Amino acid sequence: MSNIILKAENISKQYRLGLVGTGTISHDLNRWWANIRGKEDPYLKVGAVNDRSTKSDSDYVWALKDINFEVQQGEVLGIIGKNGAGKSTLLKILSRVTSPTTGEIKTKGRIASLLEVGTGFHPELTGRENIYLNGAILGMTKAEIRAKEQEIIEFSGCERYVDTPVKRYSSGMRVRLAFAVAAFLEPDILVIDEVLAVGDAEFQKKAIGKMQDISKGEGRTVIFVSHDMNAISVLTNRVIVLQNGIVNYDGDTNEGIKEYLKGENKRMIYQYEGNYADGIPKITEVKVNTSLPNNIHEFGKEIQFQFKIYLPFDVENLALSFQIVDEFSVPITHSWIFDADKQIKRNKGTYHFIGSYPKPKLYMGYYSLVVHLSNSRTKEKYDFLDSVCYFSIVMMKTVRSEYHWQKNTCKYIEEVKWQSSKI
Questions:
Q1: What CA–CA distance (Å, rounded) separates 340 from 375?
Q2: CATH homologous superfamily for the domain 269-422
Q3: Of 71, 237, 241, 353, which sits most exposed with the smallest number of CB within 10 A?
């Protein structure tokens, strides 16, 4: 007997650009006339690729085009892609919120969807009343909901406010309660969009743990969309990468993450493009040597930072330092090399510095560098770079047991090892 619980066959979704209702009567008549004659919809043959960064002359766009995949019972499938790639559109079709232009979705059992913050909640009803409302929408009986009611409230952490109207909840509280309802009312397929990003770190950890229990312990299916590659890596064994509305990759999670991150070339290398007429020492290049392409680095592996410095005159007491800062510009560590410590005098020219962390204790997330070049004796500031060379730390399955959901709390990681040479 087949274990396939969901099957998408030739799913496409077309949207008309511009103001709804403008010029659509003629299009509807053309569609109607084609249908009467047994012909194909004439507008299925037109439409631009779903690339939001480009302009097109077509009034139609394919948000999704010819999507085909199957999901096994108990599988956790990740769907990733850039903003506008078609992820949310696909989830809405899977949840039957909207219908596809072509193709069909075949499913077995009940589907619970968590697509947007507070979707399906009535703001005037209390949290408890919304539990029963959502449960009824999912097809649960009142007795089934009552049996799970206390577990839902305890998991959400909203017990104090459960008899307060939802309109007074924060977005995080709504997500907590909505996720708890969807997870504890035992759907056969749980569909989750990016909404977990609204929750705090403690709730995200609980939610990921619950989704693992749902799939492994209870044998139910989870379809999960996120931009958090660490959550995708921890939770899923298979991902689909969407690009411009089409499937770019379908397979192993680690390889899928690498495929997705190929396009994330965000200021990977800093290079100075000005002139040297002012006669001031310059930082001319900054680069991060990571274990994976496109400034992606595996948790726990050695990482190197390279710097090129141009000195227009001889300098004593040169000081080069850099900070690793997180996505919120919070400093994680500060490392430096002072020539004064070794009584080094550098002649005019270009120098290459390498700072290495053999075992960096950087948790999963996004980082960049803040770089300072100065004179440690005179305190003269030569050059300063803010937020350059973005890189990310990711967790691969081979070291998943070391994973911590906690954000960086340490301000210091092991001492950096420096090398320098004149070019």
A1: 9
A2: abc- transporter (atp binding component) like domain (2.70.50.60)
A3: 237
